[in-house]
Each structure stands twice: as C-alpha cells, then as structure tokens.
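Sat 14:20. Reprocessing the chain from the morning session after the first attempt stalled halfway. Input below, unchanged.
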Amino acid sequence: MKRFAQAIDLVDDPALIEEYERAHRAVWPEVERGLRDIGIRRMHLWRLGTRLFMQCEADDGFDPVRDYPRYAEDPRTRAWDELMRRYQRPAPGARPGEWWAAMTEVYALDSLDAAPRA
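Finished this time. Tokens:
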C-alpha cells in the first residue's frame, strides 16, 4: 500500500467553505467508485482555515499523474471535479499546472508499539 499527501486552498469565503463541506458529507457514489477504480483505498481530507490536506492510501502501482486523469474520464466524476474546483485554488508552492500540490513526507511514526528512542 502506498501513502501520499496533497494540499490545496479553498476560496476564502465562509459560505463557499460550508457548501464544500456539505458536499463532502454527501459525496456522489460514482465519485467514491471512481476513486476506488483507479486504486485509491483510503482518503481523508482535513481543513485548517482555507487550507485542505488530503492523505491517501492507494495500491502500490498507483501514480497520481497517470491515474487521476483516468478518474476524470467518467462524465459524473468529471462533473464532481468541475464543481469542486469552484471552491478550490492551488496552494502556494504548487507547481505550474498542478491543482492539488504534492507534499513531501518529512516524518512517519508507523508503530505505537516501537521501543522509544534513548
């Protein structure tokens, strides 16, 4: 299982942020199916102010650059993506053309059972 994280900003408008969160309380079934079809097994979104952080676990062969466009081939998942873009803006530090900015892992504590460092 491969883990990765991405960031994006929301438009700084409390009403739009509430709409965005409301939409995610009722994600379309085609969206969840589409994500699973491209190999994403778990996805979590977190928000602090206008910054969104997304952490995903995907099949080992998953490649966001290659596989996200396959997700958008379906008209229904493409419609969801277009709707969500109304609320989103690339985060500072995103590369040109990058919507969700790839994040670099800095540290991981993978086991609470591991012996503490001396």
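The mean pLDDT is 92.
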